[in-house]
Design brief:
Blueprint: H1 3-11, E1 16-20, E2 30-34, H2 35-48, E3 56-59, H3 66-78, E4 81-84, E5 100-105, H4 107-115, E6 123-128, H5 135-143, E7 148-154, E8 159-165, E9 173-175, E10 179-183, E11 188-193, E12 197-208, E13 211-217, E14 222-224, E15 227-229, H6 231-242, E16 246-253, E17 257-264, H7 272-282, E18 291-294
Parallel strand pairs: 3-4, 3-5, 5-6, 6-7, 17-18
Antiparallel strand pairs: 1-2, 7-8, 8-9, 9-13, 10-11, 11-12, 12-13, 14-15, 16-17
């Protein structure tokens, strides 16, 4: 889909927009989102960043995804300037315009922006969504000049329902005022968008009022010998130490039921014995990987890791 096609769909008489989920934890699916709820979502972001019709919004994300669609909706309902580019991992490489008040990117694009900071235009704020921010990228954001916010949300909630200021070390996500949060018995986050819907997510969280930190996904938990292991915190630790992408997944095991497998995307930079030594030094014994593999980590089109090998 192009932005021209999306805006024609937005301007037609239908009450809903057809959207597609990413399929990071299962098969992608089509859902209908009410346009009025997309406008409510857009207004939350507009108010948060004090945007108005004089603002300039730019998207590096395809309108095939909710993050791309919503950047267009924000500009549309304000009558603000909106520009976009063909998505790539070299965002703003050919941009020759002026200040951007709100820029929408995914983590791999943020990496390029950090590496080419001196070539970037003036940017008021950057929204990062689509996938978790790698720990090394986050560390570099903390040292950078950019005002960066990580989003939490999904297609089903018409984009993000909470934001996190990445410039504040280890800050939590904070939900918008009309979003009510709770957890179930498995500590999975429950989102209640007042006046619209209630969504039980698969994200296990630590929650305090309208703030929360994501521990990992409930359906990603590995049960190895009765010990429940969340892959995402292990990935964060190991990516920070190895400075390369890491996937923690599992394989069937006759003894343990599931054994922890670590895939290291390092092109053979680290030998297995060195990785084992680093793991033993920094990880608890009960969560140590029992198998190490090297190779390309499978990902969805918008950069999320595919958990099943």
């Amino acid at each position: 889909m192009t932005y021209e096609e999306f805006f024609r769909e937005w301007d037609d008489v239908s009450a809903d927009i057809l959207c597609h989920t990413s399929g990071s934890t299962g098969k992608p699916k089509d859902i209908l989102l009410p346009k009025n709820e997309m406008m409510r979502s857009a207004m939350r972001t507009i108010r948060h960043f004090n945007l108005d019709r004089r603002s300039h919004l730019h998207s590096c994300i395809s309108p095939d995804y909710i993050g791309g669609k919503m950047q267009g909706v924000r500009a549309k309902i304000m009558g603000a300037e909106f520009t976009y580019e063909t998505p790539s991992n070299r965002p703003l490489e050919h941009y020759r315009g002026g200040r951007i008040d709100l820029l929408s990117v995914v983590p791999s694009q943020m990496r390029y922006i950090l590496d080419h900071a001196d070539e970037m235009p003036e940017i008021g704020a950057i929204l990062i969504g689509g996938a978790p921010i790698p720990i090394n990228t986050e560390a570099d954001i903390l040292k950078s000049k950019f005002n960066v916010w990580e989003t939490y949300g999904m297609t089903e909630t018409a984009s993000h329902i909470a934001l996190r200021n990445v410039k504040v070390f280890f800050s939590p996500f904070r939900a918008f005022d009309d979003i009510q949060l709770s957890i179930d018995s498995d500590r999975r986050l429950i989102i209640n968008i007042v006046g619209w819907k209630r969504v039980v997510t698969n994200d296990v969280v630590d929650i305090h009022g309208n703030q929360f930190k994501v521990i990992g996904r409930y359906d990603n938990v590995i049960n190895s010998g009765g010990i429940k292991i969340h892959p995402e915190p292990i990935e964060q630790i190991m990516e920070g130490l190895l400075r390369c992408p890491v996937l923690i997944t599992s394989a069937p095991d006759d003894k343990w039921g599931e054994r922890v497998v670590m895939v290291v995307e390092d092109s053979g930079l680290y030998p297995d014995d060195q990785i084992v030594e680093i793991c033993r030094e920094h990880l608890q014994k009960k969560i140590l990987p029992k198998e190490i593999r090297h190779g390309k980590i499978p990902r969805t089109e918008n950069g999320k890791k595919r958990r099943k090998l």
